[in-house]
């Protein structure tokens, strides 16, 4: 303020005719600026840092020596406003990160009988019953107790729509209670909870400096040397010291020193707005140059949140309900992707879960602890059996599951294996689209590395089109695969489990799916996708590349203008005072250019279906997809049934096709496709999809004709062959068509790429569709393409 006051005061004095006083005020402002710059240079020297403020020091000193008091005051004022501008730009670039840090919960309300006490968040322990009031931030990770909770997750994930959580559902800290007060059973302390992990990641992000920024510092030193040389040459060749001063005035390398870090931090901040925590500029800059991608399967390419499809009991003294209850009770405090499935299955059966004691999780194996006084182990067969031979029933179950490529979890109680659970884990709907998008932005090789059975891994890999599949890999072997890939180019590893943490740490850029508290995968990763969606990684790469490009563009713009101004000053076309004003304008232009990294750029707003249509399509597909297998099952069964029974099966299938499937496909063609075509643009973007509809209609018409000609007693052997030929073809077309629609609808759904809260995506209000109730589960794209729908192998921890 003093330098600015000196400048304004001196100008006022000159205007009143007091030139000597005005010069004194300008000189005083320049001297203050000289002292401030000198102290900053001294601090840099003491910290053994190379500084470039020496140019400003020489410019102000030279102005005073040459009695260019106005130029000296202008330089001082410009430096002061430049520092303020830098602070504003840096704060704006960090605003999303700062907002996340500022909203960290400080207290919690603990329920003790009828009393509610307020305590510091650090005093919360596992098992505490907490009350989360309306509008409050959830203090720690926990499970909902009592009525359903309505949570706003937009601050963490960018999702604008509040999400309902049923009793027993797990809730992450940092989300906001958007409904009535509800009770929460803590499953982690504050330090172990999701939001605490995110805060630690953000603090790391704020402290990191990108290689590009460090490179800018080195270039700034070279630019300073060039500036001094040009100033000396201008003075020496012309004998006019004023020209040398003018060169120094416009030579400050602020565009390099400010624009590059602001652009990088802006990219980090924009990522945070989209639910992507990047641990600093170095990670962002490395992500922008990534070439090779390695992915885990379970929880990364698949949902990692599967459903229990079967419970098998090996001991007659137990039942399947008790097997599931004990396993879910132990697993309810785990953050492993499969744990939520066990808890959800138990809640669906309305089982009363007990809080475990002494629970301990072993990476790659399973969990152990005590439930109702009984020692329980849940995980792989080897982990559950503790090295002892499996019971004969368990061995037979394991052989069948292995042949089918099924996902299995074994349960042991008091050192005896009593049962096992079978689960199904569908592929993420955004996985194929994400992999294609990554290839478009420069990822040249995609490798799936997993602990799963080769049969399952190869099937998923072929479905998604990855370049290589590495199956049955232990955590140590995953690390070896990452190191091998790093020899070929800058490598990214994406995983979500504890067993992935070593590989994430070994990669050039480790990416953790979902910030589940303080899990080692999130701690080891350089990038954490707070929202559990793979397509956000493609966004992260796009943001990183854009931020890096903007940093370079802004630096080149600013330095180019500075060099032009230096040339003009050297030839006498730019006096020192005017040069100070011009340099400030150049700094402002470079900073404004760098702040573009906060935005999404052209094409950031993508077309989206309206919420009502999206929800209706999700509901219809959730209802129809499980029924598509009826087409294949009938084709497989009819040659083993009596003629009358086969006729009944064919008639039942005909009713499904006429009453459910055909109306759905016709409505899609007549109502949904025109809306999507308007959103996508072009002549007829959904022509291939409509052609598939026509093929479905043709096959169903052939089926109905054949059924109409059928003997009332049932099909003959020749009829069976005709029916099977039609039904197998229809099933294949339906599987492919539904998978394509699932991916298309997911890519256009508001929830998949909504911008920050308050920025709704494009809607389709003209669509003649009515709102439908929200489905219980999200659509599962490509599940209809999976021939192993009865289960898949898990990550190494669960593999039986």
What would your notes on this structure say?
The chain is α+β, with helices and mostly antiparallel strands and 800 residues long. Among the domains are: 107-189, Calcium-transporting ATPase, cytoplasmic transduction domain A (Distorted Sandwich), CATH 2.70.150.10; 307-424, Calcium-transporting ATPase, cytoplasmic domain N, CATH 3.40.1110; 611-785. The protein is 55% helix and 13% strand. A 7-stranded mixed beta sheet has the order 10-22-21-20-11-18-19, sandwiched between helices. Helix 8 packs antiparallel against helix 9 (241-249) and helix 17 (431-440) runs parallel beside helix 22 (535-570). The longest helix has 38 residues, at 643-680. The termini are far apart. It is found in: Cell membrane; Membrane. Keywords: ATP-binding, Cell membrane, Membrane, Metal-binding, Nucleotide-binding, Translocase, Transmembrane, Transmembrane helix. InterPro entries: ATPase_P-typ_cyto_dom_N, ATPase_P-typ_P_site, ATPase_P-typ_TM_dom_sf, ATPase_P-typ_transduc_dom_A_sf, ATPase_P-type_domA, Cation_Transport_ATPase_IB, HAD-like_sf, HAD_sf.
């Amino acid at each position: 303020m003093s330098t600015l006051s000196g400048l304004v005061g001196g100008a006022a004095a000159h205007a009143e005719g007091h030139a000597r006083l005005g010069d004194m005020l300008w000189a005083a402002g320049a001297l203050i600026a000289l002292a401030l710059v000198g102290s900053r240079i001294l601090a840099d020297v003491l910290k053994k840092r190379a500084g470039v403020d020496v140019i400003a020091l020489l410019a102000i000193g030279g102005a005073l020596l040459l009695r260019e008091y106005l130029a000296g005051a202008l330089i001082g004022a410009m430096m002061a406003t430049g520092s303020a501008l830098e602070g504003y730009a840096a704060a704006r670039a960090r605003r999303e990160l700062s907002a996340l840090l500022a909203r960290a919960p400080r207290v919690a309300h603990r329920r003790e009988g009828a009393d509610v006490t307020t305590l510091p968040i650090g005093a919360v322990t596992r098992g505490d019953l907490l009350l989360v009031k309306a509008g409050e931030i959830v203090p720690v990770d926990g499970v909902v107790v009592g009525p359903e909770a309505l949570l706003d997750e937009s601050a963490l994930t960018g999702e604008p729509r509040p999400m309902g959580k049923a009793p027993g559902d797990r809730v992450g800290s940092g989300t906001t209670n958007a409904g009535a007060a509800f009770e929460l059973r803590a499953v982690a302390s504050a330090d172990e909870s999701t939001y605490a992990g995110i805060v630690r990641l953000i603090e790391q992000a704020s402290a990191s400096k990108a290689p590009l920024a460090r490179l800018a510092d080195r270039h700034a030193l070279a630019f300073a040397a060039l500036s001094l040389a040009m100033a000396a040459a201008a003075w020496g060749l012309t004998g006019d010291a004023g020209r040398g001063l003018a060169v120094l005035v416009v030579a400050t390398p602020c565009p390099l020193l400010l624009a590059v870090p602001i652009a990088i931090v802006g990219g980090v901040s924009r990522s945070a707005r989209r639910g992507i925590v990047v641990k600093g500029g170095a990670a962002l800059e490395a992500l922008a140059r990534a070439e090779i991608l390695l992915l885990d399967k379970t929880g990364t390419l698949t949902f990692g949140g599967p459903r229990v499809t079967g419970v098998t009991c090996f001991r007659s003294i137990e039942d399947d309900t008790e097997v599931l209850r004990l396993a879910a009770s132990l697993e309810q405090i785990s953050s492993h992707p499969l744990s939520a499935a066990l808890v959800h299955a138990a809640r669906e059966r309305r089982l009363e879960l007990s809080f475990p004691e002494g629970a301990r999780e072993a990476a790659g194996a399973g969990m152990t602890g005590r439930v109702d006084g009984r020692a329980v182990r849940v995980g792989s067969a080897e982990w559950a059996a503790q090295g002892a031979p499996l019971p004969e029933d368990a061995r037979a179950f394991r052989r069948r599951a292995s042949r089918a490529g099924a996902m299995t979890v074994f349960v042991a109680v008091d050192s005896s294996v009593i049962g096992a659970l079978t689960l199904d884990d569908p592929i993420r709907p955004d996985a194929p689209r994400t992999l294609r998008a990554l290839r478009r932005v420069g990822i040249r090789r995609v490798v799936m590395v997993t602990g799963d059975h080769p049969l399952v891994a190869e099937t998923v890999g072929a479905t998604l089109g990855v370049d290589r599949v590495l199956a049955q890999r232990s955590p140590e072997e995953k690390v070896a695969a990452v190191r091998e890939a790093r020899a070929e180019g800058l490598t990214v590893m994406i995983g979500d489990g504890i067993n992935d943490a070593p590989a994430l740490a070994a990669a050039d850029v480790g990416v953790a799916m979902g910030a589940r508290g303080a899990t080692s995968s999130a701690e080891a990763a350089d990038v954490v996708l707070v929202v559990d969606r793979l397509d956000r990684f493609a966004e992260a790469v796009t943001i990183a590349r854009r931020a890096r490009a903007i940093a370079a563009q802004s630096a080149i713009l600013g330095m180019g203008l500075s060099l032009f101004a230096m040339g003009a000053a050297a030839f006498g076309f730019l006096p020192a005072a005017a040069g100070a004003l011009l340099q400030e304008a150049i700094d402002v232009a470079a900073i404004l250019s760098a702040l573009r990294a906060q935005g999404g750029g052209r094409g950031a707003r993508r077309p989206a279906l309206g919420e009502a249509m999206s929800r209706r399509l999700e509901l219809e597909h959730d209802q129809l997809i499980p029924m598509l297998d009826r087409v294949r099952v009938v084709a497989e069964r009819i040659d083993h049934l009596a003629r009358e029974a086969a006729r009944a099966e064919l008639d039942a299938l005909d009713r499904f096709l006429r009453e459910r499937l055909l109306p759905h496909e016709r409505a899609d063609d007549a109502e949904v496709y025109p809306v999507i075509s308007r959103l996508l643009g072009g002549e007829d973007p959904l022509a291939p999809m409509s052609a598939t509809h026509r093929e479905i209609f043709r096959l169903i018409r052939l089926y109905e004709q054949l059924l109409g000609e059928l003997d009332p007693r049932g099909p003959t052997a020749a009829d069976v062959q005709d029916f099977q030929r039609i039904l197998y073809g229809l099933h294949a077309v339906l599987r492919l068509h539904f998978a394509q629609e699932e991916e298309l609808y997911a890519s256009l759904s508001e929830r998949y790429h909504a911008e920050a809260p308050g920025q709704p995506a494009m809607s389709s209000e003209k669509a003649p569709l009515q709102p439908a109730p929200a489905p219980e589960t999200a659509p599962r794209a490509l599940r209809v393409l999976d021939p192993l729908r009865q289960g898949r192998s898990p990550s190494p921890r669960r593999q039986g």
